[in-house]
Amino acid sequence: MDDIRNGNNIPNQFPTNGQDWANYIGHLWNANRQIQLILEFEDRLNIPRMRKAVRLSIDAEPILGCTFVENEQLPFWERLEHLDARNCFRWEEVQDRDEALTITLTQPFDSEEQQLQVKLIRSNNADTLCIKLNHACCDGGGAKEYLQLLLKIYNHLGEDETYRPESNVAGQRDAARLFQTLGIKDPLLAFNPQLAALKPTWSFPYKEVEAKSFHFSTLRLDKSQTGTLHSYAKVNGATLNDLILTAFYRALFVIVQPEEAEPMEICVTYDLRNYLPDKKADAICNLSSVVNHRIAKREGESPLATLKRVSLVMNEIKNNKPGIHSAATLEMLMGIGFKHAVASIKAAWEEAVKSRMSTINLSNMGIVAKYPLNFGGLIAKQAYLVTPVFRSPSFMLGVSSYDQRLTFTVGYCEPEMARSDVDAFFSILQKELLSFQG
User: Fold this and answer.
1) Looking at the chain, which terminus has fewer C-beta neighbours within 10 angstroms, N or C?
2) What is the distance between the alpha carbons of residues 348 and 122, in angstroms, rounded to a whole number?
3) 287: nearest Cα among 73, 63, 66, 131
4) Spatial contact of 115 and 77, defined as CB atoms under 8 Å apart
5) What is the DSSP string of 85-117?
6) Contact of 68 with 9, CB cutoff 8 Å
7) What is the Cα–Cα distance from 430 to 397, expressed in whole angstroms?
């Protein structure tokens, strides 16, 4: 299959962009680079068909078969050789599905060069699919687009074993179409220093000890609970994201105990695909940004009062082209060259470690799929996204939804961050979320 390449001439090299740089560099020190998708089924998938679908997907979106090649000025993506031998799909049959999934989530890629690895865990005639994607090549939005691609190929192969998707060799992976859509001729003019992050003033509790292992904790709400949150947000003129952010703030206020009246900042991810007419990128890529949200703690404040303040600030942010400033910042990053970009991001990380402070992050990756994921007649009963593991003092809460159920995840390193602290955080977060009743 390496030689055929779907009958198309796949280039050997592809350009990188500012978002690729930032995610690749930033995860050299403080994270594991992996964005993961977990799908749970109540029956068995077709393993030979899935193996073939995964392999074909690497030709359909060629970036997934590339490695990031460092260069002092301008790094590039280079197509890997012998892709068939790299075993991007594997499966195992186990007795304890939860234990096997935990191990899979914390495992690195087989090779640092890889952008994609898919594993199927079979237990008691039920399958769990774990899709690992390198954050250097795509974000949560890109992971969802990859899921749709894999689904399409798998189902086509069920109808025609000779099916081969076209290779997306011309799809733009940078923000050029974004800026063009917004009528921004010079992205640097969109840079606004007033929208930059504040100097960090808080962090999730941790100890200055050697990180020895990755761990993930999860909180899941059922349909009824999620539906109640939707209704409460709508009645009070807010969004579900506002409500989640409010509960996040209130849980952190309890865990971290910041001073009152001092603005605390949470970086909230924003999918820049929302600005595109079809809300879809031209190719699997990084096309997300952040907005900097700030409120102060107020002792004794009700959940609704906090929600009103959070929603007010978020509405102000939305009126100012959210995320575009951050996208322009990444364009500026490319302007200084890769060597200096590495030095700049490393210096920022070292300052965070020294100060023990880092802006806390909320990554709401949205709906995994608007309709039930149907793999050849087999419906995924559960699907959720898992954000990368971050080293302390960084901390990120990931959120996604599927079939009207919300799933929250946190990846962290032990023993620098205690599992008991993360469990306590999730307990408080759940209490805050469920306090929003009609």
Assistant:
1) C
2) 43
3) 63
4) no
5) GG--EEEEE-S-HHHHHHHHHHPPPSSTT-SEE
6) no
7) 13
The whole-number pLDDT of residue 399 equals: 98
Region 111-122: what's the mean pLDDT?
Answer: 95
Name the nearest CA neighbour of 274 among 206, 322, 203.
322
**144 neighbors 284 (Cβ within 8 angstroms):** no
pTM above 0.85, yes or no: yes
Structure tokens of 74?
Answer: 């301008």
Alpha helix segments (H runs only) across 72-198:
97-106, 140-159, 176-181
Report whether 404 contacts 229 (CB < 8 A). no
Q: What is the pLDDT of residues 154-213, one digit of tens each?
A: 999 999 999 999 999 999 999 999 999 999 988 888 877 777 777 888 999 999 898 889
| Strand pairing category for 360-367 and 264-271 | parallel
Q: Any idea how long the chain is?
A: 438
Q: What is the pLDDT of residues 38-80, one digit of tens each?
A: 999 999 999 999 999 999 999 999 999 999 999 999 999 999 9
